[in-house]
Structures are given as C-alpha cells and as structure tokens.
Amino acid sequence: MTKQVLVTGATGRTGSLVLKKLRQQSDYFQAIGFARSQSKVEELFGSTEGFFIGDIKDKFSLESALKGCSALVILTSAVPKMKTPPSPGERPQFEYEPDATPETVDYNGQKNQIDAAKRAGVEHVVLVGSMGGTNPNHPLNQMGNGKILIWKRKAEQYLIDSGIDYTIVRAGGLLDLEGGVRQLLVGKNDTLLNNPPEGIPTSIPRADVAEVVVQALKQPDARNKAFDIISKPQDTPHAEVTSDFAALFRQTTSGI
Ligand code: NAP
User: CATH topology for 3-250?
Assistant: First the structure.
C-alpha cells in the first residue's frame, strides 16, 4: 500500500523538490502538495492536480488536505522582504509583511499544521528548519526583528511535545546546487555551525535536504530524531558521497 504524504510549502524551493522526488516513487508514496498560490502551482507543476490550495493560517484548509495522510512534511517558512534597495555602502534592511511574520508563519502556522495532523491521525511529521537556533543574537533573528530562529525552535518543541513521531531536519545555508554528490554531516544544537570540521562552509544543497526528507519518510532510524545537517563541498578529498541514509540517521538523537 502506498503512503499518503502531504507536503506544505510545496511551491517553495525545497518543498517543490520534495514533492517531485516523492512523485517519482509512486509505488511507495501518494504525494499531495499544499500551496497558497494556484498560479505558482500551475507554473511549477503544470496543473493543480494532486494539490490543495490553502493557507497554513487557516486550520480548516489544512484539515481537509490531511484527510487520509499518514505523514506530513512541513516546508513552509516566513520570508523577509528587502525594505528599499540600500544606498551605496549601506546594508540592506529587511521586514516582514504584518500577516507573514515568523511568529505567524513559523510558529502559529506550524502549530496549525501539527494540530491538524494530530486530528487527522497522521503518524509522522518531517519538519525542515534551520541551524542557528541556539543563538538568540543570530543575524537571522535580527532580520526585520522577526526572531525567526526562535519561533522555529518553539515550533520544533511543540512538535516533539505533540506525541506524533517526528523528524526535525535543521539545515545549514541552502544552496541551489546538484544533490547526491556530497558527503552529508549531521550534528546537534549548532555544534557544526560553531566548529565546522576542517573549517568547511556550513551549507547544503536544497536537493540533498529534499533527499533527506524522502529518506526520513522511509527509514525507521529517522523517527523521533532532531539534527543539524550540512555537507562537505563537492570533490573534498577523501569525502564519501552519502548513500546509506539509515546509517546517517543512526548518528542522530531524539529531543530538541
Ligand atoms: P522557500 O522557498 O522560502 O519556501 C517557503 C514556502 O512557504 C513557500 O512555498 C511559501 O509559499 C510557503 N508559505 C509561506 N507562508 C505561507 C502561508 N501562509 N500559507 C501557505 N504557504 C506559505 O523555502 P526554502 O528556501 O526552500 O527553505 C526551506 C526551509 O529551510 C525553510 O524553513 C527555511 O527557513 C529553512 N532554511 C533556509 C536556509 C537558507 O539558506 N535560505 C538555511 C537553512 C534553513 P509561496 O511559494 O506562495 O511563497
């Protein structure tokens, strides 16, 4: 029997990759997308077939979308906008739309998804978040004074406390580069960010994060785990491209 999975943020840069990967494995998954923009869905996927159009601020649209699903992938996120182009020599200033702040999208919006998942009997939630959440003074928290990493972290704790099986993937800086060609490294609570091995950049291609999500839906070793993840740059000497995801997940631990 196929596993019915809802992917939110399915028109996002990582969410769309996850949905496409799941749909390539139709023997295993029946993958449904959740997005707020019909035109963006049509542009990216050709049609709205297999999609629910809704907003994560609206619990009811989430409840209908989750009917019959055994897993949920959360890939929604608040996105800051540049206020005005900076004057020469000045740093750009960012802000959030009043109804799209991290508190609204990353905390209340994720809570809505977790609550709706619980009511629908979803067994497993895979949540993609971000590294950096142990540092309240992280520059991303200052951006638009949105405290985005703090709200994301609170939502992660809410998921853990919900009692649903979870996999929390805290990615390093996301790259739009080829996936499946790098060694992936896992850590916890920003150890990789604070002490990157051999000083490597703390980043990872979106395509690799998408693969980690797909594998997390398949591998029992990913259940009830929360971890940070980065990649060694492609062609790093002696690096081994990650292919055994069960072994990778066995290096991770439960709890925030
Ligand atoms: P993204 O492209 O910014 O996608 C975010 C998605 O959320 C979009 O599809 C957006 O819809 C959707 N969304 C926002 N508000 C919504 C609402 N009210 N209702 C329904 N959908 C809503 O994401 P990404 O850059 O791939 O990032 C994936 C995750 O990794 C995010 O949690 C991000 O914070 C995290 N992360 C990012 C970085 C980085 O370097 N950027 C680093 C580490 C972790 P629309 O398509 O309609 O806008």
Answer: Rossmann fold (3.40.50)
